[in-house]
Amino acid sequence: MRSPAVDTVIFDLGNVLIRWNPRNLFSKMFGTDEAAMEHFLATVCHTEWNEQQDRGRSWEDATAEAIKRSPAHEPYIRAYFDRWEETLGGALEASVRTLQQLHDMDIRLLALTNWSHETFGIAEARFPFLALFEGIVVSGRERLVKPDPAIYKLIIDRYQVRPATTVFIDDSLPNVHAAALEGIHAIHFQGAEGMRAQLRALGIPLPADSADSA
Q1: Which residues contact 148 (CB under 8 A, 6 or more apart)?
Q2: Residues 183, 178: Cα–Cα separation, whole Å
Q3: Most buried residue among 100, 161, 164, 188 by CB atoms closer than 10 A?
Q4: Distance (Å, rounded) from C-alpha 55 to C-alpha 140?
């Protein structure tokens, strides 16, 4: 019997299966002053600052560093961790249906996520579908972040993944390109419908889903 073209799918989590945006929290705190919120997220608790937590920096250290830079924003800085659960949105239901279908088809499921080790447990408690994964590599635990080639090599080695029969799905183009350089089939997630079409093109016989675009 011929070996399957794809036997493993590796998912990113944030904004592929789980909606995440700090504006979910800070729009409550800044109210109608959207410009002040965007200034705060661009200059105080900005993307690069948050990525250091994904790389393993403690939230205690991150909070202290940001307060030292911008003491006037201390309540907002502290809220980023204290109210972190409010940065989460709901699940992307069409993606979760796809995950469940792949699980039912005995496709091996892994996850590779840039996420702080201190907050990942909140997501695990809130989203039971994460239990469908055989393994989840969390960047904050490994002190490596995508698109560093080392984190792709880590998941390949840890789970004895065969890149030629593996698909990686992520909403970040740099992360997708890095996976492709490791010989993995890489899909840039721009919605569940497109993801499902690309998985079918790789030989996975997913059933039709009238709500793919949800």
Answers
A1: 178
A2: 9
A3: 161
A4: 5
**Per-residue pLDDT tens digits for 174-204:** 999 999 999 999 999 999 999 999 999 999 9
Gap between the Cα atoms of 162 and 11, Å rounded: 15
CA distance 137 to 56: 13
Q: 111: alpha, beta or left, given left = phi > 0 and alpha = psi -120 to 50?
A: beta
Per residue in 75-129, pLDDT (tens digit) is 999 999 999 999 999 999 999 999 999 999 999 999 999 999 999 999 999 999 9
Minimal CA–CA distance to 126: which of 18, 10, 11, 16?
18
How do strand 8-11 and strand 166-170 relate by DSSP bridges?
Answer: parallel
Task: Report DSSP letters for 129-147, one per residue.
Answer: GGGG-SEEEEHHHHT--TT
